[in-house]
Amino acid sequence: MKNGITVLPYAVYMTEQGEVLPAREAEERLGLRNVAGLRENTMAYRILRAHDRSRRKGAMELSMDALVSPDNVYVSIIQTARASGLREFALPFVLTNCHNSLCSVGGTINEDDHQFGLSCAKRYGGIMVPAYQAVIHQFMRECMTSCGSMVMGADSHTRYGALGTIGIGEGGGELVKQLLGQPYELSDPQVVAVLLKGRLRHGIGTHDVALSLTSALFASGIVRNKLLEFRGGGVSGLSMDMRIGIDAMTTELAALSSLWITDDRTKEFYCRHGRGDAFREIRPEAPACYDGVIEVDLDKIQPMIALPFHPSNAYPIREFQENAREIISGVEAEGRRTMENFSLQKHFTDGRFCVQHGTVAGCTGGLYENICAVRNILKEFPGLASDQSLHIFPASQPIYHQLAETGAAADLSAAGAVLLSASCGPCFGVQDIPANNRLSMRHITRNFLNREGARPSGGQGAGVALMDARSIAATLCAGGVLTGADTIEYDESVPPDRFDGDMYRRQIYWGYGQADHVTPVELGPNITDWPELDKLPAHLLLQVSGVYGGSVTTDELVPSGEASAYRSNPEKLAAFTLQNRDPEYFRRASALRDFSRKYRLGEGREADESLDRCCRALEAILGCTRHELGVGSVILCSQIGDGSAREQAASSQRILGGWANIATEYVTKRYRSNLINWGMLPLLTEQPLPLKEGDLLLLQDVRAGVETGARQFTAIHVNGAGEKIAAYPLICPALSEEERELLLSGCLINRFRQQRIP
Questions:
Q1: What number is the average pLDDT over the span 500-526?
Q2: Who contacts 453 (Cβ-Cβ below 8 Å, separation ≥6)?
């Protein structure tokens, strides 16, 4: 057991009442056959099968009930869909404007994106949520979820399981397929039960539970790309805000999605939001098989802090206080991988670790109960000091309105806290960016390296510590000394929450089913089309453009912050690829892309003599023309793909001439899907390849291999004369027919465009 969490990493048989038996024991003792087949009895599978077009075991073809995307990616999604033959949104598509409130300088003006989004909502029949009305996931909770439905979002924290909705965060390519009436392909997922028991103690909040789970589970990968099903007696003692806050953080476990039992509290939530007809009871109705069990004793959860640079780097606050110097030394060592002079020593005062800035925001922190708890704590103390700051971003305007009506907003302002409009900015790295070598306490979703908006390549490094809103408030009231909220006395009562949706009815464009095809699409000067991308050639010559140890996250592949200003211009955004991890990557990859273009035209010698000689030698060896030999880049790494759903992490590599990644592990399904949708091969190797930047790898007959569904490829290390130096086996996990067609076409735009040519 770790922090109240026990893991049973094996298949189990579970009764409706929650009694657990190992699957093998259940088969022997109860005389059951094929216990594994009882996975179909889980709540999750009943919903999945109801949305499955294929009706076959092993591989699902799912149709969603709704889609959602924020403004940092909806332009590229719609542009991709338009290039692929879009005529009308095939299902409700919600466009929110919560990410780029401060990203206009140097790139796309925010309102250009917003006008583009509104014009597309009118032309194709969509739903448009203006800026500052709500963060993406809170709007979906308030207005779009329903028990038993499925929603896909272009944001990794698309999690609505607490409301009986399976939410899946994917890259934009998967949303494009849904907009075009194509299914979401999913191999039958494993399901892990999360059994909650007991009740949370005084001072314990949603982030304490979430960070405890992340600390206990992430590294083992036990729930990676699996569905989590929350059940057990402990669920009834959690308010809806508590459930929602825990649920959203299952993304940080790298889980595929999540689902909770629904009850009277769920029903009350829907009724309060004027959507009582969206409720139905979802509960286990028969014995089921689970692929593992996580038991959570809520009584034992402690106040937590997650240190940079991952939510799983979490400790009970008491434990951190006892070992702060040692733990911070480890954080500093990790930070110096990309930030040479990174230090957090300024935070030690008289031997104690102190933080003076806090933020409570977004889809996890900005919930009504969290903010009321902060108000209650601050009321017990004199208020914030002049060197302290606390910024609070309610997750929606209705929440802000309710805080004003109850007087909580006035109390918070009087205590020195600042309330701002709904925004994902602090989580996304475009607001509340800490000073150099400083740390910020935040109740947000994640704290990856460079996620907070710092720019190591420009000499600025900073970090974020994740904490629950209650302990953030307690810490500030203690003069900045890290303090768990369980150590102080405060009133935990919360005024009743009353949802007022009038502002939504006035401000939001509800256009689903009302497409007006004569409405022109408004394109601002920095909103550009996707460049043309080649289909997969017969053979590939790949030059290693980067070699990376450890984990490479999507936030490193294409950072947020400054880069987001160029979100609507694929070519300009690609210039930021791996900027903070490897500032020279763009130069190397773009130089290779330039060579490739000239080589196809027969002009390669002018660009790179040595590479040109190699290509011409391979033409002779392989008996092919220059049009049959593709030249591009590849990166080698260990783990890759943890983090945001952003498809730009894959598309930017592709735009720079990337044809493949070679890794020992792809952490999330969504990143692998992003690669395939953009025509890049997601290749695996059991051990890191002994290669360096500049080395050349030949994938002979790669197109034929993809066509036939080959699971094994050989990467031939060649010299400048095209001669073999060594050979390395590569694995390509099973591809569906559609995935093979996407790779062969070179990207999903090519694939769907050719489908629609008369």
A1: 93
A2: 429, 430, 431, 433, 462, 560, 561, 562
